[in-house]
Specification:
The protein has seven helices and eleven strands. A six-stranded mixed sheet has the order 4-5-6-7-10-11. A three-stranded parallel sheet has the order 1-2-3. It has a two-stranded antiparallel ribbon with strand order 8-9. The longest helix is centred in the middle third of the chain and has 12 residues. 37% of the residues are buried.
Length: 212
């Protein structure tokens, strides 16, 4: 339904969707990038380090050109090996995926997670940006959509700590195993299902059935 809404919006606004970009291979939901490709003819993108399927692969510091915009791909591993943050310097904003979230960060207890690596990624590649850069995470569980580098440097309860304190926090979060990981990761390694509204595929996903 989300992919259908997005493709409808693209058509209604008479836009041409060029790329559908993944910040990483998600574990808690199934990507819609392949479905968007089927619906709009766009190309799918993910980091080469993710080992997932896509039309284009990015390495650290590569630039994605979209019209007159230059989007920098920064490798920010720690939540997964393939995490990337996309930075648009001309507009002072960054899309951080699950590496840095609003007053939080991605968990590090599965899927190549490494708390120390994440700490250095966030501090070295995201919080090192100018404090007036806006931060757009992949999602937020309280309905927030935007933060800033300054806010997260001041108020993020995990990343304002020392490295050792951060590691201790991440090792003791006590989070449940993601309910959809066993179906989401196999689908996401394949760039997600290609059909926009395939009821059988959606039923399989709902039933936690991985792709054949």
């Amino acid at each position: 339904a989300v992919v259908s809404t997005q493709s409808t919006g693209v058509n209604e606004l008479d836009l041409k969707l060029k790329y559908a970009m993944n910040t990483h291979c998600h574990a808690d939901h199934v990507t819609g990038t392949a479905a968007l490709r089927s619906a709009t003819g766009c190309q799918t993108i993910i980091s080469k380090a993710s080992a997932a399927q896509a039309d284009m692969y990015l390495n650290d510091n590569e630039i994605v050109k979209i019209g007159n915009l230059n989007l920098e791909a920064r490798s920010t591993p720690g939540h997964t090996d393939g995490c990337m943050t996309f930075v648009l310097h001309s507009h002072k904003l960054c899309f951080t995926g699950d590496a840095l979230m609003i007053r939080a960060c991605g968990r590090t207890d599965f899927q190549q997670g490494d708390a120390r690596k994440l700490y250095h990624s966030v501090h070295g590649r995201i919080l090192s940006l100018s404090e007036d850069y806006s931060v757009y995470p992949a999602h937020d569980y309280q309905g927030r959509t935007q933060s800033s580098v300054r806010e997260e440097k001041l108020y993020n309860p995990r990343l304002t700590k020392s490295e050792d304190e951060f590691v201790n926090i991440m090792e003791n979060l006590g989070l449940k195993y993601p309910a959809k990981i066993d179906v989401s990761v196999p689908w996401n390694m394949r760039c997600g299902p290609t059909e926009v509204e395939d009821k059988e595929i959606m039923a399989d996903i709902a039933a936690n059935k991985p792709p054949a």
